[in-house]
Design a protein that fits this description.
heterodimer; A: about 290 residues; alpha/beta; 10 helices; B: 6-stranded antiparallel sheet; about 25% strand; elongated
Chain lengths: ~290, ~400
């Protein structure tokens, strides 16, 4: 088992005919993911990398029984692409696009609230169930089917922890990048809930960093349940150069965002094993699982 | 994109937010001339730096006459202000803002932010605006009022009225504040503002309201629909190395240490610096090579470190992923070294996509390097080399 996506997930690609759309669609198909169609307004009826292309998401979904979408479009089209996926009833939409304006994401978040769509991203490397389904742009060379769920705000640190858990023989059930932007779809809390219910997942790694309120929300949730599985957290940015300009950090602190130390303390207080650095994650996991 | 005080105020004023009459000056003479044009009973002279806390550091002065304004400007211009937000090197004042000093019957705090928890714009306000507001609010959260706005930034008029009633405003003061916040909301929505703060928001004895200081942060990601951002960004004071890096798709923050850090990805960059500082090292920078950066852009980023005489060693930590592969980074590094007379030793930790290829580039180009198998090992070795412990 895994969470959200598996070997039977059928995926369309919004923006498939673009340069990165072509590249990452090809890689995902070779990995064995069931990519079934692409969407590109104006190119409906043609074929690209062996797949049919449709003008609209709804048409592609109807024709192929797809339930998931990978969104690889430029930043100025990202919000409308996500909104199209939401109104077409896509269950899992993964948006890789970076630099999406935050005001656009406010509108997207509002439309997600009463929808059946789970949005992963934007500015996310995507979701990977090793050996079964890759919806994203991550490297798969170090990934290995296994028992560790990884949920992360950082693509580069995810690569690091994937490689470490594979080297330790643990492997991964599913890895999810929630995205590096302040406003994004799926968050730590819901990922933790899903990993808790997933039989294959024996332990979870949470990769956080400075800023935002994801770690605080995760700590509140973990404090409210008997989670039943070890959770290891790495929160990066303890020694980040201080946000010195114009008191931005100060204003955000009014909104509940805490320092890295406070985030780590709150997680530790609810039983999370907090790694002192990136190389400390796997030893902690091994200790907790043995 | 953090706008300066005068940029912030002129943006707000364009949307109808009242501000005291004023303008910028780069010399004492210009400052006095500004004051003569404003013709007020009392003037404020304010250092224009890209950090807060300037008042406590001596960056704000007052005068009753244009001549006095000139003297205050002469005192402030050219000074290096060190505040809790500038970092230890401080910031040197090149421009002052001269404006009419207002008499405040009350000084409020007003802000609009996008709350990451609710993903909605949120209006914040307090009766106790002024210096060190964040510290006050951290100690006494009850002084902060908040109103969650709709996704399009709007609110029901009744809600805004209730919000200001909680801030003790009534009658004309209430009406003026409502008009001001309507103008602020328009400015926030129409300019892709990610953060707007007016502190203090003065209520004058005649119940007029005016923005005495303002900070506006624009969302640089929205530049594609705001060509005017480009010009504003050119006026903003910025560390030259940070600007070069930004133009080359690299997030870079200059720091005071001697270990130059070359890393792909923000998370890995933060984790590398954490480990380096814990091991007793002193980073010369924070670096996050964005996934869109190509080798030539990375070369520009590495050159910033090679050109810095404080840098004694380069710590190269790359975890090749699906978007940035190891050889892209190392090609850039090799190019920067080929163009530089300074060739500090490289401690390289290369993992993930195309790591063996990147290692062979280091070897074939005869770059002065040592390979490390793990992050911890690389960090420990870089600290040793920076301390002069041989190779």
């Amino acid at each position: 088992m895994s969470i959200l996506v598996g070997s039977d997930t059928r995926v369309i690609v919004q923006g498939m005919t673009g340069r990165s759309g072509t590249f990452y669609t090809d890689l995902a198909i070779r990995y064995g993911t069931q990519f079934v169609a692409g969407v590109r307004p104006g190119k409906g009826g043609s074929r690209h990398v062996g797949l049919p292309v449709f003008d609209k998401v709804s048409e592609a979904m109807r024709a192929t029984d797809a339930t998931a979408s990978l969104i690889l479009v430029p930043a100025h089209q990202a919000a409308s692409a996500i909104l199209e996926a939401v109104s077409a009833g896509v269950e899992v939409a993964v948006c890789v696009t970076e630099r999406v304006p935050v005001h656009d994401m406010v509108g997207v978040s509002a439309s997600l609230r009463n929808s059946r769509t789970i949005l992963i991203g934007p500015n996310s490397q995507g979701i990977l169930t090793p050996g079964a389904c890759k919806i994203g742009v991550m490297s798969t060379s170090d990934a290995m089917p296994g028992c560790i769920g990884i949920v992360s705000r950082s693509a580069s640190l995810t690569s690091e922890i994937v490689a470490q858990t594979s080297a330790a023989g643990l492997g991964q059930s599913t890895t999810i990048g929630v995205g590096g932007d302040p406003i994004h779809g799926l968050g730590f809390r819901r990922c933790l809930e899903m990993f808790r219910n997933d039989e294959e997942t024996r332990g979870v790694v949470l990769i956080g960093e400075l800023g935002g309120v994801e770690e605080e929300e995760a700590a509140d949730y973990l404090g409210s349940v008997d989670y039943g599985k070890p959770v290891v957290a790495l929160v990066a940015g303890r020694h980040a150069p201080q946000e010195r300009r114009m008191g931005h950090a100060g204003t955000l602190s009014l909104m509940g965002s805490r320092t890295v130390e406070e985030k780590a303390d709150r997680l530790a207080a609810v039983g999370v094993l907090v790694a002192s650095d990136a190389d400390h994650v796997t030893p902690l996991l091994r200790g907790a699982l043995s | 994109m953090f706008l300066s005080e005068h940029q912030s105020k002129s943006l707000l004023a364009r949307h109808g937010v009242p501000i005291p009459p004023g303008g910028t000056a780069a010399t004492a003479g210009e400052a006095a001339a500004r004051a003569r044009k404003i013709a007020a009973d009392r003037y404020a002279v304010k250092a224009q730096i890209s950090a807060g806390g300037r008042g406590l550091a001596g960056g704000i002065g007052f005068a009753d006459t244009p001549e006095g304004v000139g003297r205050e400007a002469a005192r402030i211009l050219g000074r290096t202000l060190v505040t809790n937000q500038t970092g230890p090197r401080g910031e040197t004042v090149g421009t002052v803002y001269v404006e009419q000093a207002v008499e405040m019957a009350a000084s409020l705090y007003l802000a609009i932010v996008i709350d990451q928890g609710t993903a909605l714009p949120t209006l914040l306000g307090s009766l106790e605006g002024g210096v060190e507001f964040e510290e006050k609010a951290a100690a006494r959260p009850e002084i902060l009022e908040r109103l969650t706005l709709k996704p399009d930034c709007s609110a029901d008029p009744g809600e805004i009225r209730d919000f200001f009633r909680k801030l003790d405003l009534t009658g004309d003061g209430l009406r003026n504040a409502e008009n001001l916040v309507t103008a602020c909301i328009g400015a926030f929505r129409d300019n892709d503002v990610s953060l707007m703060e007016i502190n203090p928001l003065a209520v004058l004895p005649d119940k007029a309201v005016t923005a005495v200081d303002a900070k506006v942060v624009l969302d640089a990601n929205a530049m594609f629909r705001h060509p005017e951002f480009e010009e504003l960004s050119n006026e903003i004071l910025e560390d030259p190395s940070e600007r070069i890096a930004r133009e080359n798709d690299i997030n870079f923050v200059a720091m005071d240490g001697d270990v130059g850090v070359v890393v792909n990805g923000a998370g890995l960059g933060l984790a590398t610096n954490d480990m380096l500082v814990d091991a007793g090292g002193r980073p010369a920078n924070f670096m996050d090579i964005r996934t869109t950066a190509r080798s030539f852009q990375i070369a520009r980023g590495v050159s910033l470190l090679l050109d810095n005489p404080a840098v004694k060693v380069i710590l190269l930590n790359v975890h090749g992923g699906g978007m940035t592969v190891c050889d892209t980074v190392v090609e850039g590094l090799a190019f920067a070294y080929s163009r530089s007379n300074r060739k500090p030793p490289i401690i390289a930790r290369l993992a993930g996509q195309n790591a063996p290829w990147a290692q062979s580039i280091l070897k074939d180009r005869r770059l002065p390097h040592e390979l490390a198998a793990t992050m911890s090992e690389a960090v420990a070795r870089a600290v040793d080399v920076a301390r002069g412990k041989g190779r």
